[in-house]
Design goal:
This protein has about 450 residues and is an alpha/beta fold. The protein has helices spanning about 25-35, 70-75, 80-95, 105-120, 135-150, 165-170, 195-200, 205-220, 245-255, 305-310, 325-340, 345-365, 390-405, 430-445, and strands at about 50-55, 55-60, 65, 125-130, 150-155, 190, 225-230, 260, 285-290, 300-305, 370-375, 375-380, 405, 410, 415-420. Bound molecules: pyridoxal-5'-phosphate (PLP). The site of pyridoxal-5'-phosphate (PLP) has 13 residues, from α5.
């Protein structure tokens, strides 16, 4: 699995701009995109990609960008990681698809075995595979309802769980995710989230409020599932105060409610652990994964207590493409890379680089209200002098980075968070160069 059969030349891991951004070829493609692609599909970067490798993206005009976004936390093992490329090439030549429900194959089973072993808890577990994060979340809710014979589902302020009808209902933010797209699925209830930078409360206090409201407004025995991201992703990398998650998990356990950790963004070494739940000693009943799982191929999973996962009638779960053999081969290679390169440790090393650089910047630039996150999932929240969110500065800052060769993403209910999700294989030099550009953005934009 380690030998390299990759025809693409390895890309030099260095930022290199050779045209104005966007260059002429990207500009031309942007005109075609505008004519052919729905305006409803969002866009972050003004350039089109020709190739990507490791932690850089090469555009069609020959510009090389430092990738601090990993295609939204997906290319954790690096873009086109050689082991992933080889596994995909081998599998695509053997068979592309049979449908696991029609003619099963080993790769699907092997991915489920890995998931059952790597997710928190030593209890018997089982998994099922799907195509996207939203699809995994939908299925987790289906399974929880089927097991409990209850209907209500609790989600949280600032939460993000996807864009399908049920997952839009679970997602908190209206614009752009829900605006004009209702009506939404019923029996979804939203509870307060611990957001230390804004609420000045302990995790226990916020959990008590949420639990009181669940008891009074829904009824504990009506609730099928509580679903929460252990660190919120699209919400702005919100790390709840200590005790919040454990109090909710205990409430769930005491009342026969399925506790689902949505680790689609936080999973697979991203936060300096296989799963972010581990930082709080949480053992979720069910866990959803996707993004970092398969080295860039579309794959998602629900993993949970075997008794819960087996409670669904035969044929109740599935889908034509779920657990596609090529995506499974990629996942096995990506997991192998995570283990053999100790990417958990690497995420912690990246965390210290981020924290050193960003706290130094925070001392110089008062617009940085908070530096937060874990591992290589770190964000800065930008505020005005009166402490209120500064979405305008956030958008100018990220645009400056884009035009100067660094891919960064924004997030947050108030659109005032810049988030960093580099591949865990990024070099110290490349990360530091990316952060130099961020620092330059502060001096140039503010
Ligand atoms: C991205 C994300 C989803 C949705 O995944 P898709 O593959 O985009 O459907 C769900 N939950 C969380 C926490 C996510 O970050």
């Amino acid at each position: 699995m380690t030998s390299v059969i990759n025809n693409a030349p390895a890309l030099v891991q260095k930022r290199n701009l050779v045209t104005a951004i966007p260059g002429p070829k990207s500009a031309e493609l942007m005109v075609r995109r505008k004519a052919a692609v729905s305006d409803g599909v969002g866009g972050t970067m003004p350039v089109f990609v020709a190739a990507a490798g490791g932690s850089v993206v090469l555009d069609v005009d020959g510009n090389t960008f430092i990738d601090l976004g990993s295609g939204i936390a997906v290319t954790t093992v690096g873009n086109s990681a050689p082991a992933v490329v080889e596994a995909v090439q081998d599998q695509v030549a053997l068979f592309t698809h049979t449908c696991f429900m029609v003619t099963p194959y080993e790769g699907y089973v092997a991915v489920c075995e890995q998931l059952n072993e790597l997710t928190p808890g030593n209890h018997p577990k089982k998994s099922a595979l799907f195509n996207s994060g939203a699809e995994a979340v939908e299925n987790a809710i289906k399974i929880a309802r089927s097991f409990t014979k209850r209907q209500a589902v609790v989600a949280f302020e600032h939460g993000y769980h996807g864009r399908t009808n049920l997952t839009m209902a679970l997602t908190a933010k209206s614009m752009p995710y829900k605006h004009n797209f209702g009506p939404f699925a019923p029996e979804i209830y939203r509870m307060p989230m611990s957001y230390p930078f804004h609420d000045n409360s302990s995790g226990i206090q916020i959990a008590e409020t949420a639990i009181h409201r669940m008891e009074k407004e829904i009824g504990a025995k009506e609730i099928a599932a509580i679903i929460i991201e252990p660190i919120q992703g699209e919400g702005g990398f919100i790390v709840p105060a200590p005790g919040f998650l454990t109090a909710l998990s205990k409430f769930a356990k005491d009342n026969g409610i399925i506790f689902i950790a949505d680790e689609i963004q936080t999973g697979f070494c991203r936060t300096g652990a296989w799963f972010a739940s581990e930082h709080e000693g949480l053992v979720p009943d069910m866990i959803t994964t996707a993004k970092g799982l398969a080295g860039g191929l579309p794959l998602a999973a629900v993993t949970g207590r075997a008794d819960i996962m087996d409670s669904v009638h035969v044929g109740g779960l599935g889908g034509t493409y779920g657990g596609n053999p090529i995506a499974c081969a990629a996942a096995l290679a990506a997991i192998y890379e995570m283990k053999s390169n100790d990417l958990i440790k690497r995420a912690s090393q990246l965390e210290s680089i981020f924290n050193n650089r960003l706290s130094a910047m925070q001392k110089k630039f008062t617009s940085i209200g908070e530096v937060r996150g874990r591992g290589a999932m770190i964000a800065i929240e930008l505020v005005k002098s009166d402490g209120t969110p500064d979405a305008d500065l956030t958008s100018k800052m990220s645009k400056f980075c884009h035009l100067n060769g660094v891919i960064v993403l924004t997030a947050g209910t108030y659109s005032n968070v810049i988030r960093f999700l580099p591949p865990l294989t990024i070099t110290d030099e490349l990360l530091n160069e990316g952060l130099d550009i961020l620092e330059l953005a502060f001096t140039s934009v503010t």
